[in-house]
Amino acid sequence: MSAANAAALELRGVSARYGPSVVLRDVDLSVRPGETVALLGPNGAGKTTLLRSAAGLPVGVSGSVYLGGSDVTRARSHRRSRAGLCLVPEGRAIFPNLTVAENIRLHGRSGREAAERVFEAFPILAERRSQRAGLMSGGQQQMLALARCLTTDPQVVLLDEVSMGLAPRIVDEIFDALQLLARSGVAILLVEQYVGKALAMADRVYVLDRGRISWTGTPSETSEDDLMNRYLSVDAGS
Ligand SMILES: Nc1ncnc2c1ncn2[C@@H]1O[C@H](COP(=O)(O)OP(=O)(O)OP(=O)(O)O)[C@@H](O)[C@H]1O
């Protein structure tokens, strides 16, 4: 595949294990530039492990991972991040004792200009730039985690349950920011607990079940009820 029409992120035949327990089996998944892809699946299906495998975080992985057509299978996480990949993990990966501005400066590598762009996208963070990050609400901390990722000018953004535990208004704000990001050509892969929200946001969906992709398609090819009944209910497939 030439770099010009390459997927922004591609996993080919990826399997992953923690010690003896295999949690991802032969997963193929791709995200094109500007595309938003949702990854759904019941608890323990392997969604976080898939994101970590893509980001090069230590799990026992086999198969191949490509970023913009380049094979990064053997590249560690910091090299993948330099190649344009950013993971916003579950929970709020920020430094609570530093100010908002310090959190952003510490992470970004593009200097003041990038920080100012991010403050434009998230006015709430601009207002609070001198406040200690740990004193903000959960939603604002989640915005900060996303904002820090954006200062690195990513090509691929991986998000693990960003909406978890947040008020609907904040979730809408975060998803609006993600939509803008996708429009600018960034590839987005998001693990999302709200199926309706994922279908509204995503261009394509993958469902993971016990480490395997059990369904993939576009939101117009399915519905929230269909996915819930066939793949995501507690007894699905058992
Ligand atoms: N560090 C670890 N060591 C051992 N097993 C792990 C580790 N992390 C996850 N697992 C196991 O791997 C499986 C997949 O976990 P993973 O967190 O990837 O699933 P998930 O789909 O993200 O689940 P959830 O929706 O509950 O976050 C689970 O059975 C989990 O218990």
Shape: globular
Low-confidence stretches: none
CATH topology-level fold name of the largest domain: Rossmann fold
Number of helices, counting only DSSP H or I runs of 4 residues or more: 9
Bound molecules: adenosine-5'-triphosphate
Strand order of the largest sheet: 6-7-8-3-9-10
Q: Ends: how far apart?
A: 39 Å
Which structural class matches the secondary elements?
alpha/beta
Family: Belongs to the ABC transporter superfamily.
Domain ABC transporter: 9-235
Organism: Nocardioides immobilis
Protein name: ABC transporter ATP-binding protein
Keywords summarizing the entry:
238 residues, P-loop_NTPase, binds adenosine-5'-triphosphate, four-stranded antiparallel beta sheet, six-stranded mixed beta sheet, globular, ATP-binding, Rossmann fold, alpha/beta, 9 helices
Task: Map the helices and strands.
Blueprint: E1 9-18, E2 21-31, E3 36-40, H1 47-55, E4 60-67, E5 70-71, H2 77-82, E6 85-88, H3 100-107, H4 111-121, H5 123-127, H6 138-150, E7 156-160, H7 168-183, E8 187-191, H8 195-201, E9 204-209, E10 212-217, H9 224-232
Parallel strand pairs: 3-8, 3-9, 6-7, 7-8
Antiparallel strand pairs: 1-2, 1-4, 4-5, 9-10
Helix pairs in contact: 3-6
Bound molecules: adenosine-5'-triphosphate (ATP).
GO molecular function, one term: branched-chain amino acid transmembrane transporter activity
Family: Belongs to the ABC transporter superfamily.
Organism: Nocardioides immobilis
